[in-house]
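Minutes, project check-in

Agenda point 3 was the complex the collaborators sent over. CS summarized: three entities, 290 residues total, and the question is how they sit relative to each other. Sequences were read into the notes so everyone works from the same version.
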Amino acid sequence: MADWTSWTPLPLTTSFTEQTLAETLNGGQAFRWNFLPEESCWQGVWGQYVARIRFSDKNHLLVATPANAPDTFPALAAYLRDDFDWDAAVDSLPWRSDGHLAKSLRAFPGLRILRQPFAEAVLCFLCSATKQIPQIKVMCERMAATLGNELMPGIHALPTWEQLTNASETQLRSLGLGFRAKNIKKSADLLATQPGLLERIENAPYEEAKQMLVSLPGVGEKIADCALLFGAAKLEAFPVDTWIIKVLEKRYTLEGWNPAQLSRFGRVHYGPLAGFAQQFIFSYERQHPT
DNA sequence: AGGCAGGTGGCCA
DNA sequence: TGGCCACCTGCC
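CS then shared the predicted structure for the full assembly.
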């Protein structure tokens, strides 16, 4: 049975708080992190990696990885985008002229945008349609347990798109995916006929990438923006979901604007890191619903 | 018990 | 373009 390494400090260039770590890992960007009360740590899976994270102090995390997978440690630093200057990014947002944004930034000091594997970001957000975070997590966990590689006893990776082509729509429905099963099955089949398509999308400029991504069945504007923001480091992507619509309507008095107009407003108002700003106001709204 | 939830696609004017 | 509706499922 594989074992865990001892807790090792991961120095951070941009400091976290404990609450912000929770919000980053489990606030709707990613769906494969769980808090283990008995270990008082977060355990998560991305790609073929597993890790455990514990908050140490604002400038360090403590990390444990499978003893037989030493490359997990640098992979985690990349996943957390510790190569990026988040403090400078926050300062570049228009908080000086936007009191609501300023308040949201103060509420989640250190909040980051993860760099998830692109293929699994597409998959997870295909599951997200009209579902809440806990239910999306259940769907992802079931897909992983049924179709994904076992990484450690009882811990499974999400299935690759190739693995998904081996599942029938009926089997996917039996995992509780509902009408999303058909979209996932059709997307898997389409991707199988287009080798390298996901890589080309991931590496393309934002507008071009989004245009290609919405050609997948079940991927509309919102899901495309989420996948590009959380899985391809395209921080200009500005997902417009029901929460953001509520925020923009109520706190920016934009009642009556349609999603396309709100999307344009977001990119113009928040600027080239609009998706980063979006994550703060999304998190703030979930904790302080209006 | 019925409506709603980090949406999308199809159909109608 | 803009509005309306079906679509799985589970939870309040």
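Noted in discussion: Residues 129-132, 135, 138, 173, 176-182, 258, 260 of chain A lie near DNA strand C (CB under 10 Å from a C1').
Follow-up: revisit at the next meeting once the mutant set is ready.
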